Amino acid sequence: MVDLRTQYERLKADIDNSVAGVINSTAFIKGPDVGLFEEELQRYLGVRHVISCANGTDALQIAMMALGLKPGDEVITTNFTFIATVEVIELLSLKTVLVEPDPGTFNISVEAIRKAITPNTKAIVPVHLFGQCADMEPILELAHSHGIHIIEDVAQATGAEYRFSDGTVKKAGTMGTVGCTSFFPSKNLGCYGDGGALFTDDDGLAAMIRSITNHGMKVRYYHDTIGVNSRLDTIQAAILRVKLRHLDEFNEARLKAAEHYDRELGGLPGITVPQRSAFSTHIFHQYTLRIEGGRRNSLRECLENEGIPSMVYYPVPLHMQKAYLHLGYGADDFPVTTRLSGEVLSLPMHTEMNDEQLSYITGCIRSKFN
Question: pTM for this structure?
Fold first, then answer.
């Protein structure tokens, strides 16, 4: 699904030098590369503050802590996402409010958010799923009119751009109150272990986030708030500095692969290729098809027999996960999510794909659906 080996070999000299530099300095925790990476990512995103942390799940939890959300406060998010998005809501004893995604883009439905807002709604977590932005302009309008925080989950879309109706363009993760991302190795901007970050233009919020990530300290051994221990290792920061310089190139390579898939698979009966939003670029963290007519699993088996990996993101809706049955939703409450869970199939997608690989994959699919 992801060829990290070939990508590493292409960047090997710079990666090895960056890692060796950290080892030689022995500045393994909060070394200079951490601050330099934060500054470089700030410039890339066009945001005032980037605060790194240990992983993307921590980033979401720290954002909710920094915003002062209290037990019982309602947080609206999509039912079609990775578990981390709701996991932190429950860990903080907040109230998870799940809503449907748009069946075309897979991103959270604006109308579903509108219907779910109550006086107890304190935050909305739009997830920029599979590489393109949720429709942020109306979501921001809703949030502003109700005094609600927006926490963007940008783990799958770092580098994607959203175009507002007035022509303004902003990067994913920089439009809401705070953005949260992961640098898991398979991400478009990934390190060689775990890592994450938060983005914000709010100076006071940034200071609170930075304190929370460091045991609630602003001054060493003086703890002003309850915090956590969530740091980006210096070695990972050094690797990310190298890879950040190539991020736009990486995203272009993914787009080229996606266009090949579109050409070869678009129009096949029973297959829907990914929908591109008019308001967002798509950086294709995943290339996800919809396979109709109950043929998804048989196609997956066919691909496996030909040595082609594929993945289902996500096979069980959140409201049907055993750990979240206490939310009280019924099995039939989310027909869009349930249908997507039975139809979606993600194909190999990474920066090192070549025409031969792409033609082999699409040829296998075409032979089954023509």
Answer: 0.96
